[in-house]
Design goal:
By secondary structure, the protein is mostly beta strands. The chain has one helix at 2-18, and strands at residues 25-29, 38-44, 49-56, 63-72, 75-82, 90-95, 102-111, 122-126, 132-137, 143-149, 156-160, 167-170, 176-182, 188-189, 195-204, 207-212, 215-221.
Length: 223
Amino acid sequence: MKTYYLLALMMFLADCATAQKLTPGNYLETPEKGILWVEHTLTFHDDHTFSYNRWSDDLAANEYGAGTYQIRQQVLTLSFEKQVPQRPPQAQTYPLASKPDSLVFTFRVTSNSRSKAGAEPTIKALDASGNTVASTYTNEQGQGIFRFARVAQPQVLQVSFLGCLPYSQPCPASSTAFQVVLEPKHGTPVQAGTIKEYPIVNLADGQLTVWWDKRRTNFVLQP
């Protein structure tokens, strides 16, 4: 009888461990300083699902994935099951006062990229053949401006940034203000069916510390 209750208790404790959840939210790695910037993000949801991204200055090494997770016996297990849809860049436009013989296009560009690249977003004007007829960078506040004579109106306006999907649209016929949000390219998807296990060092107060690729790595829940 004692053996029966002992086994039942062990099964109960195992079930409790399996059911352990992380506080839902976006966990951002506190990266180590080094020559090459690398950063991981993990987003955990209340239904034991997660999404994962690896960001790096080496764009070819970026990767992403999603699936389900569990915590058991102080080990975080990520089971990759699906790909995360790529979010396209977004833009809002507002009309500006126009002059009969000229056009003005202003830009306010932000990015959700985690890249630490020092370059600013690039704004280009293209002709009907896709050739660049004008190009500029945004300033530190993400602002840029183009002025054209109406007879020299380009065909396409394009905004790009290292590691992000470019935004482009046909050039409006009147002066316009653009507010553009660029989204990072996801990189290489982690193959469905992949299982990764990370021993947990600490799990408390919105912090998750694990052994990640033989390196002690700290993730902090973002407010």
